[in-house]
Design a protein that fits this description.
With 319 residues, the chain is of the alpha/beta class. Helices cover 43% and strands 20% of the residues. It has twelve helices and twelve strands. The protein has a seven-stranded mixed beta sheet with strand order 1-2-3-4-5-6-7, with helices on one face. A five-stranded mixed beta sheet has the order 8-9-10-11-12, covered by helices on one side. It is globular, with a radius of gyration of 19 Å. The two termini are 29 Å apart. 46% of the residues are buried.
């Protein structure tokens, strides 16, 4: 099984209450990704309400998550006009086909990185899923792998209609947004948004709790992007996974990230590096998520940061 599949299944082991939309002020709302034991999770989704319609940031993976977004739009009697995918991981783009079928005139904005991922990382993941299906006798497990295959096989329905190739300011559904593109950080192209009126920064997986997800990343460029996010005049930051964060929280996260990379490059044990992350992040990691954080970091330290250096070198060498 590919790394990202292992990590996302690990994330799904942390159960939480039924998700609801949380008000972020200025008619912006957060739908937290739902973590349910035994299946892949959804990433966080943000809905911005404009005069003429809605802007949705990240569409989730499972039908239930995406359907909650549709129900929100119907309750407001406003169409979804724009969808932004912060990156191509399936827990952030998997709901695109449902939203497109429901609102055929909407536009999807994202980097074109998913095109390369579809013939690279996701193609390999698809092969792993097929192998898992062939060797599994568990009906629930087969259903989960088949659902993953169905998302990948949606193909171009996951792609952007309006690719994001550079930073810029836009007016969508009556909301003024600053759209930014970070290259070769978490993925080949990570989109993040800033809404000046609300001082809201939507970071996608450039920030994730309880641990950074390093499967497709160039850690050094990610590190630099975190420093750039610190320069934004935000009040609230929405991570790709986890609760809303303050500026101080981001500074703590960035400090923990710096220490994690430095520790991975040292002679310290994986347990020592993990303990350092936990100590630095402190209350940002709820007690219930601490076992998960340890499992994730143990995997990333041993298999990614201290594993075969070739994949990271290739990702960081790309222009």
């Amino acid at each position: 099984m590919r790394a990202i599949a292992i990590v996302l299944l690990a994330l799904a082991s942390s159960a939480r209450a039924e998700p609801v939309f949380e008000s972020l002020g200025d008619d912006a709302y957060l739908l937290r990704g739902e973590f349910v034991a035994g299946r892949q999770p959804d990433g966080n989704s943000v809905v911005l309400v404009g005069k003429a319609g809605l802007v949705v940031v990240d569409s989730g993976r499972h039908r239930e998550h995406t359907q909650r977004i549709v129900e929100f739009a119907r309750a407001r009697e406003l169409p979804i006009q724009h969808v932004v995918n912060t990156h191509w991981h399936l827990d952030h783009v998997g709901g695109n086909p449902v939203l497109k079928r429901t609102y055929p005139r909407l536009q999807v904005h994202a980097s074109n990185a998913i095109v390369g991922a579809m013939s690279g990382f996701l193609a390999r993941y698809r092969s792993d899923l097929q192998a898992q299906l062939a060797g599994s006798a568990d009906d629930a497990g087969k259903a989960a792998w088949q659902a993953e295959l169905a998302i990948i096989d949606a193909g171009e329905a996951l792609y952007p209609d309006a690719p994001v190739g550079a930073d810029g300011s836009v007016e969508w559904a009556g909301r003024t947004l600053q759209v930014h593109l970070a290259t070769h950080a978490v993925t080949e192209g990570d989109v993040w948004l800033y809404q000046p009126q609300a001082r809201l920064l939507v970071a996608g997986d450039l920030v994730t709790l309880p641990a950074p997800l390093l499967d497709t990343a160039c850690p050094a460029r990610w590190q630099q992007t975190l420093r750039e996010l610190e320069q934004v005049d935000f009040r609230t930051l929405i991570p790709g996974h986890g609760a809303a964060m303050t500026r101080r929280d981001l500074m703590t996260y960035r400090e923990g990230f710096d220490h994690l990379l430095a520790c991975a490059a040292s002679d310290a044990s994986a347990d020592q590096c993990t303990a350092g992350w936990m100590a630095t992040l402190g209350e940002l990691i709820p007690e219930s998520d601490r076992p998960l954080a340890r499992d994730l970091l143990g995997y990333y330290l041993n298999q990614i940061l201290r594993g075969d250096p070739t994949p990271i070198a290739q990702r960081c060498a790309e222009p």
